[in-house]
Amino acid sequence: MQKRTGKNLRQPSAMTQKTRSHLAWNDFEVVLAIATAGSLSGASRALGVSHATVFRRLGDIEQRLGVSLFERSRTGYRPTLAGEELAETARIMDEAALAAERKVAGRDLEPRGEIWLTTTDSLLMGLLSPLFTQFQHKYPGIVLDVAVSNQLFNLTRREADVAIRPSNAPPENLIGRPLMAIGQAVYGHRSLNLSPGASIKALASQPWIGAGPRLQDSALDQWMDNNALKAACVYRVDTLVNILSAVSSGMGLGVLPCYLADEDPDIIQLTDPIPELEYGLWFLMHPDLRGVVRIHALMDFLTEMVRAQKQRLAGYCLTTSTTLP
């Protein structure tokens, strides 16, 4: 085999130049169709064009190449040596094109690859971790790379592919799906000997755990202000998991998502879920990812699994033992 030097690359052979300048893929298609069918009529059916069109295109190809590609007879068209070589090249090109198409399409049709996902520590701990385990068993070809943060990553800049976030007003530049409404209630440690169903006014004399400014929960901040609870705060922290930890230690009362607090046997729900503190759980992504199959596989899976936990996520009304509507 001739070594490919820089000189060879700069000065392609006359045959290479001729092939590149005189033949297009549809020319190879015509030659391959005639060689395969053995007739112009068979080639025209395979190509979906008229007999006359195939005849005209073959004549044009032979004229441009200056060589006869087929021997004509009453029994049909038989490729010459040049025609057979060209047809074989067309077969190789066709197979390569199909292989490339399958490879690329397979990436889109078969759920596999990596998903960069961001969510909060409370959602990961209280809801998503077991669901991610089930998802991985169902789709072993998909790798989840999870970043835990209370800050919304910039999906436009591809800091993450997907965000699973609590929000009542998701960013307008993102698309997604609402998964479920999340209820929140007041919780306290059993050792405080408080009775469920007490009014907020009655609980105001207790020490409270507040949300730090980095938690960015304006609704909770406003609710505590409206109920004159800020003065009762003895501790503030910037994650729900740490609020849970403080409540669980008996430090004071706190507002927590029901799905998170109900899993701790040492704390009890003291109020019904608070309507003004209900928030939506969203699956969010950049619009450019709407056609990515692995993203939709995760979205559809989480939609089904999260909505199946409606009662747990919405929280229980103490007075009726049912979930909020």
Beta-strand percent range: 15-25%
Query: In angstroms, what is the radius of gyration?
Result: 34 Å
Number of domains: 3
Oligomer: single chain
The appropriate CATH architecture of the largest domain is 3-Layer(aba) Sandwich
Q: Low-confidence runs (pLDDT<50, min 5 residues)? A: 1-19, 321-325
Principal-axis shape equals rod-shaped
User: What is the CATH class name of the largest domain?
Assistant: Alpha Beta
What structural class do you assign from the helix and strand content? alpha/beta
Main sheet characteristics: 5 strands, mixed
The CATH superfamily of the largest domain bears the name Periplasmic binding protein-like II
Overall mean pLDDT: 85
What fraction, in percent, of the residue positions are helical?
A: 40-55%
Number of strands: 12
Output the number of helix runs. 13
CATH topology of the largest domain: D-Maltodextrin-Binding Protein, domain 2
- Strand arrangement within the widest β-sheet reads 4-3-5-12-6
| SSE run | HHHHHEEHEHEEEEHEHEHEHEEHH
Would you write up a description of this structure?
- With 325 residues, the protein is an alpha/beta fold.
- The protein folds into three domains: 6-108, Arc Repressor Mutant, subunit A, CATH 1.10.10; 113-181 and 279-314, Periplasmic binding protein-like II (D-Maltodextrin-Binding Protein, domain 2, 3-Layer(aba) Sandwich), CATH 3.40.190; 184-277, Periplasmic binding protein-like II (D-Maltodextrin-Binding Protein, domain 2).
- 44% of the residues lie in helices and 20% in strands.
- The chain has 13 helices and twelve strands.
- It has helices spanning 6-10, 14-22, 25-37, 40-47, 51-65, 81-109, 121-138, 200-203, 218-226, 240-248, 258-261, 293-307, 310-314, and strands at residues 70-73, 76-79, 113-119, 142-148, 162-166, 175-182, 184-189, 208-211, 233-237, 254-257, 267-269, 279-285.
- Strands 4-3-5-12-6 form a five-stranded mixed β-sheet. Strands 10-7-11 form a three-stranded antiparallel β-sheet.
- A hairpin with a 2-residue loop joins strand 1 and strand 2 (76-79).
- The protein is rod-shaped and about 105 Å long.
- Keywords: DNA-binding, Transcription, Transcription regulation.
- It holds the Pfam family LysR_substrate.
- Belongs to the LysR transcriptional regulatory family.
- Residues 23-80 form the HTH lysR-type domain.
- One of its GO terms (molecular function) is DNA-binding transcription factor activity.
